[in-house]
Each structure stands twice: as structure tokens, then as C-alpha cells.
Amino acid sequence: MSYQYPKAYSYPPFFTKQPNPQTWQSQLQLWKDFIIDWSKFHRAYRLNPTSDIDLFHNQTIDRRLSPQVIDEILKYMTDNGSGEFDSKEFVIYWKSPEEWAESLYKWIESTGQISRVLTFKELKNAPDFNDIDQFVLRKAIQVLSKRGKAQIMKVDNVEAGVKFF
Amino acid sequence: METVHKTAGGRPELAVGETSIAMHAGIALYIGDSKTPAFEDGRSYLTDRALYYINDRAALGLPLRSINAAEYSAGILTRSAKITVRIDASGKHKDILQMQWKWVCPICSHVNTADLAADNDNIDITAQRPCVVCGIRSPDTVKASRKPAEIGSTDGATCPRCTFINHPSMPECEICGEPLKSRNLAPKLPPDSFKAILNDQQLHDFSQVTSIRLSFRQGGDKPFYSKLQSALRNISNCNSSTNLATETSIDTGRSTPRLGIHALEQLSLQQRAQTSAILSGALGDLDSLMQHAGKVVEVAQNLAKQMAIAPEGIVPKETQERFLEQASAMSLAVPSSISRNVTSNAHGYYREIARDLAEFLSLPQNSLRNTGGIMGLADLYASYNRARSLDLVSPHDLLHAVEEFKNLDLPVSLTTVAGVKVIQSEADARRAQQNLLKILQECPGSSVIQLAIKSQYSTAVVSAHLQILEDAARVCLDRAPTVLQYYINEFDSFIISRETISA
Predict the structure, then answer these.
(1) What would the pLDDT profile of B200-209 be if each residue is shown by its tens digit?
(2) CA A135 to CA A140: how far, in whole Å?
(3) What average pLDDT does the segment B272-296 reach?
(4) Chain-chain contact of B497 with A7 (C-beta, under 8 angstroms)
(5) Which of A103-117, B405-419, B464-478 holds the top average pLDDT?
(6) Cβ contact (<8 Å) for B494 and A11?
(7) How far is B430 from chain A (nearest CA, A)?
(8) Hey, are the CB atoms on B494 and A30 less than 8 Å from each other?
(9) B401 and B377 in contact (C-beta within 8 Å)?
(10) What is the 3-state secondary structure (H, E, C) of B435-488?
């Protein structure tokens, strides 16, 4: 099944920053929804705003977003908790770190692995975690450790595994 | 005192040839000896024929002829200066104002109208103006009865003027238009039953008021009073001069003494009579010219209408266009009575210009509807001054005048669109915007020029409307590679459809 682009994607004003602030807010929301939708479908975690511009270019109607507007949209997503910059690349949270943490902890519980130490590699056995981005996985573990449900174990100052409580 | 009609700009409707002399705002009106004002915060207009009082509740007019005297009392401390106007409410003067006499010119058979003072039921037409068509004076002394003809014992009614025997059902003579008294006619309302209806539905009869007082809450009382006095003087001069003319023409008919003081007096009287005859003849020509100017404009408008609906091919297109242009230019030439010296201060002057502009824009040929509800100040300046012909308004005055629109509750307003000041008519602008939205619905992605062509508005007006619609989030724009294009705003509908799908 190929990806079904939203209706707005073939609406030319979608690719121009609207001067009306109210309209611009709606436009930002639509872009955010579209980016999350698109990356969820393709299971894409990272986006390079300088090279991955196909997403922002609709060739059928010949309209593209300008780099400044792309920056504004990604900044909006960061403020919204829908993504974050990891150096030059933008990490998309099509599932929020909290949601990832939630499902990870459920899996640990259901498989009776509490108070065990698991390596980062073993964590990828969790359902839906097989191709998870390292950055997102760290974020999810950070959420759990803040709640006191996980702790990163270090061996010779190198992170070796995670212990769950 | 009686109620009068107001124009679209909230000013009294003046009769043909009536010119305004002064105007002042912030006036309260007291009726009779009442201690409380009947109306607050109104404007007084003084013309060469009448004194008007207008506020948002009432519009009253008082013919200058019915004013017996005007007295001035200065303001003391908190008391504002007042002008007391004593009115002759006997109704005699109203008759004088309304009385019109028709006579048939013996040379060209044109039915002339003359309004003259007369006592009882008889009128002396010797001192009348010459015929408006051929300029020939009417035959010497004609005594006639002002009463409409009684129906005789014959089948028809004999016209008292031209002796034509009319059919009994005719209300007026078929030949000369003289009113005939018929038994079949319903009784007419007495002329002094004018009533003003106030907001509280209470009926006020102003016809029997014997005095009114104008209280000047915002000063300007003295200049207004002096203008009123001079206007009253002019009116009484007019009356006495006609009387004089009557007298002399009768006197010259008699045998005159040729010696002594009498002869000298007679000579000067004769000279005066001659001068007044020359003057009245000359002015009469001017008056008739003015009357005909109105008719000519009317004819031009009618012709223009017919030309506009004439089927193609009958008239060459070029001629037709040129003619329409000329006709509209002619009908534009509305004589405007405001000039700076009429009003007491600059502020009032701007307000009067604003009212005049509102009236000007309410004329069908200047309507903002044709231009899309919006007009730039430069266009307004040009077309308004073209209509005023010689008595031009400066750009500075016009700017101040349009800024007064909002204070006067007029159908036009001043707004700023994308930093440019424009005047707009709310209803017409909304209609134009609906029109533009409809065009965008049919062909999304239109540019300003395409919209201007389809809507027949100017590009400036289209841009202004698009700016307004953009601010209201009704349209959104698309910076296409070559040109800026406009679309109906559908972002919100996309969000709604997304939400319903996910729900």
C-alpha cells in the first residue's frame, strides 16, 4: 500500500507561509500532522532538513516549501513535543518518548524481566522496537529512569545495559 | 413650523434655487416658553428662504416669511446664548409661500407660473415677470379670481382661465391645467395639519407654535444671529420691492402733474420702476435659465438611459460611448451650496463637506456599488471636485471631511486597507467581497488581474478586498513561481476532515 497524501498536500497555498496568523497556526498544525503521519507510515525516525526535501516538494503541482518555512515548522514541532533536533538531523516523535517508555515497560512486566539487566541490543526484541532509533530509545529510558523504574548500568564508564525496577 | 425631509446626508432638502447662508451645530431647540428643550444637540441651517433645525429625531423647517422678529439674548455663566424667533402662526404667510398663479402667455400660449403675494382672493398680475419662453410681458391689468371655477349648470366645467368647457370628471383644465372645482373630489387635508412624529410615537403639532428659542451650546451665536437678521431683511426687501413695482405701474397709468415736487417725485418713482423692471426682467431670464438647466439635465439623463438600452447596431458604438460619457458628466454637475464662509468654524465645515460627500455618493451615477464598494481618496477627490466644477475643495479639507464620517453615522466610512486610506460603503463592500469569493470558488488560484477582469472592479479595489478577506482568514495566498495567486481558505476544513477521520 502506498502512502495516501492528505488533501492539503495538493492545495497550493499549503506551500506558502500564510500572512494571517490564525491561518498560519492551522497551516503549522496541518504540516505537523502530515510529517508525523508520513514518518509513521514509512517508520522514519530522522529527517535531514537540508537533504530530505522531497517531503516538502510536491512535484505534481510544482510547489515547494522554502527552507525558512521548513525551519519554522520544525521549530513548531520541537515546541510541541513532536520532535527534536539531534545535531543536524531532526528526530520525529511519531510516538512520543512517553508512549515508547510505556510500551517498553509493559513488555518488561509481561515477560517477567523486572530487576534484570538488559543490554540495549536485547531491548530491541520488544515488539515494535526492532528498528528503533538509538536516540529515541535513550529518550524513552530517560523517561523511565525519571520515574524510578529504570537505571542505566555502566561498566568501565561505558553504558552497557538497563536495569528495570 | 413644519416637518421637512432630510437628505441621505442628514441635511434639509432644499428647494430649487434655495441657497444656504449659515449652518451651526450643537444647538438645543425650545418650543414656546417651555423651560426644557424639546430637542438637544441639533444643527441649524439658515437658507435664503427658511430656517431649519435638524437632529437625529426631528427635522423642522420654518419659512423666513413667517418670522415676525428674531431677538438675541447673550449667555450668562452657565446659560448659553439664545436666539428667540417669534413666528406669525396665523397661516397668512404660509398661503403667500404656497400660492402660485398660472397665466397663459398671449403670444406663445406657454403656461407660466408666478408666485406672488396677494390679499384676499384677488391678484393683480400687472407687476408680473415676463413669459419664461418668449419674454413678453402679460397684458396690462388683469383681475382674476384665485378661487377655482365653480361648475356651471352646463354638462361640463368651464375653465376660468381659458374658457374651455371641460368634461365634468376632469379635476383640472385639459388645455391650461387650471384646477377646476368638482363635486366629485374628495376633501383635501387642511394644509396646517403637519405633524411631526417623534421617537416615542407622540404626536406633536408644530403649526401653532408662536415662538422658538435656539440655544447655542457651543458658541457661534453672534455670527449666526447677524446672518439671520440680514436674511430676514432680504426677505422683507423682496416683499416691499414687488409692492413698489405694483404701485408704480398703476400710478404711471394716471395723468401726472408735471410741475413742482410732485413731478420730481414722480420722475424718481418712474426711474425706479424702470430700473426694477430691467432688473426683474434680467433676473427672470436667469431664473428661467436655471429652471431649464434642470430640465436639460433630465433630458440628458433620459437620453442616456435610452442610449444604454438601445439595441446594438442602431447607434455606432463610439458615438454611444461618447454620449454616455458626456451625459454622465452633465448630471454630475450638481450645484453644491457649501463653501467655507457658510459655516461658523472649520470643524462644522468639514462635517458639512462630509454630509455633502455622503449625498454625492448616494447619487446612482456615483454609487460605490459600481466600483466594488471601495474608492480611493484620490478618485473621490477627482470625481467630487469635478462635480463641484469651480468651487473646489482642497485635499486637506477633503481628508478632514472623510475623517468625520465615523462621527456622523453616514452610510459611508473611512477605513485603512494595507496602509492606504479608502472610503467604503459597508453593504456594497460586502457584496463585492461575496462576488470575489464566488469567482475564487469557480476558478481557484486566480491572480489579482484575473479577478479584476472577471469582477469588473479595478485592480486596486480587488487588492484591497483581498487584503480584507485575507485578514478575515477567508482567502489564502499561494506564491506561485510567476504570480501571486489566491484561493479560498480551506485549512480549517482540512483540519476538521482530519479530525473526523481519526475520530
Answers:
(1) 333 455 666 7
(2) 9
(3) 77
(4) yes
(5) B464-478
(6) yes
(7) 20
(8) yes
(9) no
(10) HHHHHHHHCCCECHHHHHHHHCCCHHHHHHHHHHHHHCCCEEEEECCCCEEEEE
Give the rounded distance of the alpha carbon of B344 from its chain centre.
21
Over residues B16-64, the pLDDT tens digits come to 677 778 888 888 888 877 777 778 888 888 888 888 888 877 788 888 8
Q: Which three cell numbers stand for residue B302?
A: 433620459
Instruction: Select the residue of B485, B489, B498 nearest A12 (Cβ to Cβ).
Output: B485
Give the 3-state secondary structure of B370-426.
Answer: CCCCEEEHHHHHHHHHHHHCCCCCCHHHHHHHHHCHHHHCCCEEEEEECCEEEEEEH
CATH 1.10.10.10 range(s) for chain A read 97-164
- Which residue from B436, B484, B476 is spatially nearest to A20, judged by alpha carbons? B476
A interface residues, B as partner, C-beta within 8 Å: 6-8, 11-16, 18-20, 22-23, 26-27, 29-30, 33, 62-63
Nearest to B310 by CA among B323, B298, B295: B323
Among B residues 272-311, those touching chain A with beta carbons less than 8 Å apart? none
Please give the share of chain A, as a percent, with pLDDT higher than 90: 13
Of A20, A26, A62, the CB nearest to B495: A26
B443 has a chain A CB within 8 A of its CB: no
ipTM: 0.79
Chain B CA closest to residue A20: B471
pLDDT tens by residue, B177-194:
777 764 444 333 333 333
Residue ranges, comma separated, of all CATH 1.10.10.570 domains in chain A are 7-92
Per-chain mean pLDDT for chain B: 72
Q: Residue B333 pLDDT more than 50? A: no
Architecture of domain A97-164: Orthogonal Bundle (1.10)
Chain B interface mutation, best of A16, A29, A40, A68, highest count of B Cβ atoms under 10 Å: A16
- Please give the residue that has the higher pLDDT: either B451 or B153: B451
Give the H/E segment covering residue A162.
strand A158-164
Interior angle at CA A119, CA A116 and CA A124, nearest 5: 110
CA dist., res. B125 & res. B252, Å (int): 16
Using an 8 Å Cβ cutoff, are B180 and B170 in contact?
A: yes
Residue B494 to residue A22, Cβ atoms within 8 A: no
Q: For residue A40, list chain B residues with Cβ-Cβ distance below 8 A.
A: none
| Per-residue pLDDT tens over the stretch A70-103 | 889 999 999 988 888 888 888 888 888 888 888 8
pLDDT-based confidence at residue B142 (cuts at 50, 70, 90): very low
**Cβ contacts (< 8 Å) between B498 and chain A: which residues?**
6, 30, 33
Q: What Cα–Cα distance (Å) separates residue B30 from each residue in B38, B51, B83, B209?
A: 5, 15, 10, 11
Q: Give me the CATH topology for the region A7-92.
A: Arc Repressor Mutant, subunit A (1.10.10)
